[in-house]
């Protein structure tokens, strides 16, 4: 981990104090973007096997890489370096590390040209959004920023530029090439489709794959219907779970009462009535076994309680189930929820997984309850029959 966390914390405070002064017209290059880059840099740094000092250098550079925007939108990297130098001297990280931070910042200038491993990581972190599910949202924020500062840019022209960027860009790190590049390709395909739609709208022509209105209504996803389906399915699962718990409680109560009566009354009489030993053992074993299965049906099972940022990026975590986050800090959980809410596919897949695993739990519960009721039914019937046989053939004298 980081050797001197205070350097990163002080850098964060310094950078945020400057970035908060940016005007509202800076809709993309702002404190939110910088925080995203820092998170991505930390992920890529750990994936890239950086040592603690290298990782600290990358995080410091990530916090400082856009502070130049407080003075100029042109050559902001160089401006940012000039602003950063006095601060880097102040935190006394040394000339070699200061130069490493400066190299990282300057490498982010487009077109990116990193010469060190740490610079490669910051470059990939700076354009991490190209592979994210929020790419089009972030791209629109950048378009609005350019519009506010340099004049209007049409959506079609902007989309053409975004496609050109996606086509020319390549990640430098191994993680970027293996994990992020395929995700960027998906965004490229979506961008090409969006461009085709924009061109069709501007030309006033129907798309080549235009479908009749009736067919569009059939293929359009009914969002409200999906939400109702998820809500009703979840409610049904919870009701079934409550019913299973009630059935288990009934079985536990009945059997514990029977066992208590056997222990308190019948066992003391077995010396006088030895013929009732076998029926008593049968009844006790049946009730005890049925109780154990009923308890197993209601016994809670809690998982590890933690998820990683990698799980979120890979859409593998289900944040709707408390067992996956009960040991996490609130800040990490809020970040994960925001990532999920910004991605409708991730959200719906999480809800689907939640219902699926609720169903798996219900299946296990009802299976154990069936064993419990079956054992009680046959065991109780056999025990009563054994008591009857004992009383008939070996009457109490």
UniProtKB/TrEMBL annotation:
Subcellular location: Cell membrane
Key words of the record: Antiviral defense, Cell membrane, Membrane, Nucleotide-binding, Transmembrane, Transmembrane helix
One annotated Gene Ontology cellular component of this protein: plasma membrane
Entry-linked CDD domains: HDc
Transmembrane segments: 248-267, 273-297, 373-394
Region (Disordered): 197-223
Signal peptide: none
InterPro entries reported for this sequence: HD/PDEase_dom (IPR003607), HD_domain (IPR006674), PycTM_dom (IPR043760)
Pfam families noted in UniProt: HD (PF01966), PycTM (PF18967)
Record's compositionally biased regions (Basic and acidic residues): 203-223
GO biological process terms held by the UniProt record: defense response to virus
Tagged with keyword Membrane: yes
Domain HD/PDEase: 26-140
GO molecular function term, any single one: nucleotide binding
Protein name: HD domain-containing protein
